[in-house]
Amino acid sequence: MRRFSLWLRGRPVVADSVLAGCLLFLDALGVGDEEHKVAYLVFSVILPLPLILRRTYPRAMAAVMFGLSVACTVTGYVVGQDTTDHVALIGMGVMLYTLVAYVGRRDGVIYLLVLGADVVISVQLLGTPRGGDLILVGVIYALCWTLAEFNGARHAYDAEVAARLAVADYDKERRAHEAVAAERTRIARELHDVVAHAVSVIIVQADGAKYALRQDPVAAERALATIAGTGRAALRELRRTVALLRTEHAPELLPQHGSAGIAQLAELMREAGLAVDLELTGELDDITPEVSLGVHRIVQESLTNTLRHAGATPKATVRVHRRVDDILIEVVDSGGVPVQENVIPGTGMGLVGMRERVAVLGGTLSAGRTDDGRWRVRATLPLRADPD
């Protein structure tokens, strides 16, 4: 039954056609008492017709209904008999209800005045309706208006609920898209930090091994060993990163770098040919995994960029200092001019990735040339995450 009701609600013409058919049937039952049966049957048929499209074209059908009512009154005046006792004229009240409920009170008031004019025309031409009929007509119109107010309020409520649901669905979809975009950015940032660092070291060592292969086999062997170690470390890091990205809440999978991890990173870069001075102050092993990973990635990306762009004999000074409320990371290179044939092209996403990571952790980052031509990266990461 509920399904049938919903089906009818989506097809107003069908429901209104049933209403028009019912009025036609009830109106035709009174034809036996009429002297002019043909005229009566004609109006019995045409008076309910505007009801079929009352919700599709409410204003137009209301005007047509008024015109038919006037025509019915004029016909009664011509034949000398009251022909206004059609049951189908209840459709005038139905039209009033339709205008108030589906169009607005302003149109309802205008149509109510039109109905008053229709009553005046009927009284002037036919002398009807009489006092009792006037009261009945007034009660019917008042009832139609009241029902329209209730139905209009329900429609307004349904429309508001539908609008809120639409907004909620849009907001849910927008949040889902934002979450997907944020996750893609996070994955891209992690993979870039792991792969770019390892590949840069491998390329530098491979170039060194190529030049030293004939003149210094020991150095070439050492470079190849560094390549192999770097590749294995990168593979382990990739596996750990993928495991982390696949897990919703798994802090134990986060890389616990700390001071030992930074020292190991510095040693790896020294083996790759980058002279690194490392200064670690304060306790760096008991900070949260997210901040520890952030410190490690910032140092890693900064040293990788130094290895790429700081010339034939690159140098870097790394300072990581734990303060009361935050951790200060500062990486300064030697400011050398890169050898063009050994320059490793980058994507330009390293600095962007660092900024994104620092922003997620609620910190600050600055990067640029110093007055003496060196490149400096300076970042601060708070030890406590913001409540927001």
UniProtKB/TrEMBL annotation:
Residues 290-385 form the Histidine kinase/HSP90-like ATPase domain. InterPro entries: DUF7134, HATPase_C_sf, HATPase_dom, Sensor_HK_TwoCompSys, Sig_transdc_His_kin_sub3_dim/P. GO terms for molecular function: kinase activity. Gene3D superfamilies: 1.20.5.1930, Histidine kinase-like ATPase, C-terminal domain. The chain crosses the membrane at residues 12-31, 37-53, 60-80, 86-103, 110-128. It is an enzyme of class 2 (transferase). It catalyses: ATP + protein L-histidine = ADP + protein N-phospho-L-histidine. This is histidine kinase. The lineage of its organism: Bacteria, Bacillati, Actinomycetota, Actinomycetes, Mycobacteriales.
